[in-house]
Amino acid sequence: MHRYTEAQKEFIKKASPGRYNDEITNLFNQEFGTSLSVCQIRSFKAKHKIKSNVPRNRVKPDSGLFTKEQKEFIKANVKGVLNRELAELVNEKFNLTITAQQMLTYKKNHGLTSGVNTQFKRGQEAWNKGIKGLDLAGENGKKTQFKKGDQPQNYRPVGSERIDSRDGYTLIKVKDEGLYQDRWRHKHVVVWEKENGPVPYGCVIVFADGDKRNIEMSNLLLITRNELVRMNQQELFSSDSKLTKAALTMIRLGNKVIDHELYGGDRDEFQKHIETAKKNGLSEQTFITRLKRGWALSDALYKPLHSRPYGRKVKS
After folding, report:
1. Whole-model pTM?
2. N or C, where is the chain less crowded by C-beta within 10 Å?
3. How far out from the chain centre does Cα 33 lie?
């Protein structure tokens, strides 16, 4: 363990502000001819509560895209030179491959400006004035360009079908125009809608036997999303369509019992209560959960979140 003299202690106190521990260590060893380590200097500073007040993330002079010498060269030559020209100068002098975009980014990050005004002047003609399009492909390129009215080789006519590689559903093309999801639709939905009209809001079409390729009307079931959730939660979908339909009937009967317990069969009146709850900042699920737990209607509607119903016993 090194025993510090008063002169050494005073030296560390004066040398610490604005310097990192390795810098202080080098100065100390040069001054007193010692061979202390950085850890020893750090321990001494911590014990005597001496701080350097330097950034935690140390930035070295040669860190980043350029070395210190290269940074000084850029700073000395930035005025009156375009980014492309400055990049070429740096590349030529230091054998680098810096692009104009990298030079632009570096200048922005370090507050450097060239002073060159590259904006269009009033009355200045555009370089492509009078040119109809850009012939960048050349004569050979024109042979493979699409002409107006041409169709790509992978064009599929309306009525074409394919299997979606993501989920295995059969897709059918219903029209040529519009977005992809408008042009290609799930075939089982199209088949059901052809017989029954648009799928009602909040409902989906499922396969009674679970086979996505069996798109017969007798195998397609219209169910609500609430019923879908309950069927999935209880794992009631079966490869036997009869069992699936029986399970769906059971779920629907259970929902009717719950509905009757909640609002006595008057769905319209209950919907009004839901709207009132939403206006009071409650979600539909929170409101229904409160009723299922035995809350009075007035409490379930108007008490704020995280409240308890009146009359509930609190453990002492």
Report:
1. 0.45
2. C
3. 58
